[in-house]
Amino acid sequence: MDSTTTAASGTGRGTTSNEGSGRRPAVAVLTSGGDAQGMNGVVRAVVRTAIGAGADVYAVYEGLQGLIDGGDAIQRFDWGSVGSIQHRGGTVIGTARSVEFRTREGRLKAAANLVQRGIDRLVVIGGDGSLSGADLFRAEWIGLLDELVESDRITPDLARRHSHLVIAGVVGSIDNDMVGTDMTVGADSALHRIIEAIDALSSTAASHQRSFVVEVMGRHCGYLALMSAIAGGADYVMIPENPPPPGWEDEMCERLRAGRAAGRRDSIVVVAEGARDRDGAPITSQGVRDMLEERLGEDTRVTILGHVQRGGAPSAYDRWMPTLVGHAAALEVLEAGPDHEPQLVGVRSNRVHLTPLMDAVEATREIPRLIDAGRYDEAMAMRGSSFTEMVRVFEGIAQVAPTDVAPSRRIAIMHAGGLAPGMNSAVRAAVRFGMSRGHTMLGVRGSFQGLIDAEIDELAWGDVDDWLAVGGAELGTGRSVPTVEQFYAVSRALENEKVDALLVIGGHRAYESLHRMLAERDRYPGFRIPAIALPTTIDNNLAGWEMTIGADTALNEIVSAVDRLKQSAKASRRCFVVEIMGRYCGFLSLVGAMSVGAEKVYLHENGVRLADLADDVEDMGRSFRAGRRFHLAIRNENASVGYTTEFLCQLFAEESGGAYDVRPMVLGHLQQGGNPTPFDRIHATRLAAYCVDWLSTQLDAGTHEWGFVGQRDGRLATLPFTRMPELVDPTFNRPRDQWWLALQPVMEAVAVDPTH
Length: 756
Ligand code: ADP
Description:
There is one protein chain. By secondary structure, this protein is of the alpha/beta class. The chain has 24 helices and 24 strands. Helix 1 (about 40-50) packs across helix 24 (about 745-750), helix 6 crosses helix 7 and helix 14 (about 425-435) packs across helix 22. The longest helix is centred in the last third of the chain and has 24 residues, at about 680-700. It is globular and about 90 Å long. Adenosine-5'-diphosphate (ADP) binds near residues 33, 97, 126, 127 and 133.
């Protein structure tokens, strides 16, 4: 952790003038527009990366208005200024909306304040308004400096030395409304807040048989509404980009009635604040409530979540992703030449993704225009293919499947491998989506042994109603891989139960089992069916899929445990060595370390060397003597055979010279527990629907391929088991290519002060 000084305490604030130094690059960072959780993580990463790169760094308080106000609103920051801010909600450097910045006079003052400090590089964290304001400022910069020279407010030499303003933008917005990035900073945390609320409402609604209308933010963007409807198990959702069809009132009431008849105790309708009908008339949460009460005659309550969605601590994702983009944004402004087109620094598939800033802003602003013009299909297309896909998936699982069509095929669902939060969510989605496609869905209890013992039941729509939000595995799981001797029994069971297709939701053991069975497939008639594996494990050690179901929940469990640990250690000088799961895969350790602001991480992938440990002991001693109060080291459970967590603690304690004490902390099975996060629920649902679609296609075509969920060209795909040897390191059961290892330099750039 970073505990020497904090921005909020003001102790990190230093000089406010850099005029004349002019030789070192000077970077400023600000947060503007609506606040969002995770903005602090971006600020921290920008400040530390820029310091590490040898720049002077300034934070601008109160957004673009702070540029105009100057004085104390523009503060020199050091490494410690951004200590202990990553876990805090909102933005510690403040944000504001500035009318003055919309005027040239305001921007002239802003230019004077920056150039007088030698600042000509700026990272702006905000929404499309802030980013376009900053871009206008950049475009006017030369003209503004000329005016300042003419009025003798700056010297021609100063203007010459800072003749260009280089900017980069990062989107801080809970709405996830920006084109050019998969996720905006704050959107994941907002989903956490919404889902906490919907889970709480579900429990009270279920006790009284109530209906709730939940209004979430999103004037022009349905992301929060759609995703929270999926992750919260809602019955109906209204989003601005995809207004409901004419006659939706009847359809909605009918859907809610059918849900009740199928066993639901509560009904939930999610309404985005900008929802409208096909004619453009607003659909309000109150209007929906009145209609439900009148037509269904049932007690219906409205909950408008409002600013709760912006509040609370950032989720794990809103700690590591902001670190990644903040790091990249700092490098972007430091490395870009004067004529470089300003970029929006976002993410695509967990990697930094740059888009020309104003292209992204323009595309983002086009969507509300399309919605206003009633061009909904184009608005949806601009949200991207996964958004459209999720609308279809939601429709498939939210409606009670018709029971009057003769079921065609029998798909069995089972687990194998370790427990992972989100397993239940995947089963629920598979059952409902499968039923919507006319299949009979079977649940196998107790993994492969359960299959052999014929522990198989048909699962009805209502049976899985409350499985979405609960951790664990209602069907049970097991770690054993069927032996060749058991294949006959497995095959017989599949035949006896007339299983037409198999979905195995699990981890490494699920993959290994199917892979082995496939090798013997021709010998067993029961195996002549299509089969697919869906990746669930907290370890994130499966090939083909970059973030397995369960890993995000585990990261959030780690973050909340370590947040508490840090608080407990406030009063002493202490080093904690926290041991984290993951088997031989360091994903949870590295990304966990980034999320909690650890100083050091020990991974099996890197190995642990005695010489490195000696350096670590040196560094630790130095920083504690310099005033540090807390040092956090994260160790993957299998990082090293000999250098165990206990060994590291003894070594550090022995070498501390009494300057600090050392404690181990083994998080253990806590990491596998917990209810699945919105991200894990959403992806479990998405992957389950994909698997059912894939199996259905096989059944229609009469083929029986086997595979596991992966990606091809950025889209979901099924990879054949024949690729396992090429993709998996068999010694350590982890992918040969681990994308997240590229995050290591980012973690290092923000973890340890290079100037100490
Ligand atoms: P967001 O950044 O969240 O979209 P706003 O649209 O309110 O929030 O913009 C934040 C601030 O950005 C405004 O208060 C204003 O100072 C500045 N801004 C927005 N648009 C412009 C513009 N066209 N020219 C100059 N400044 C602008």
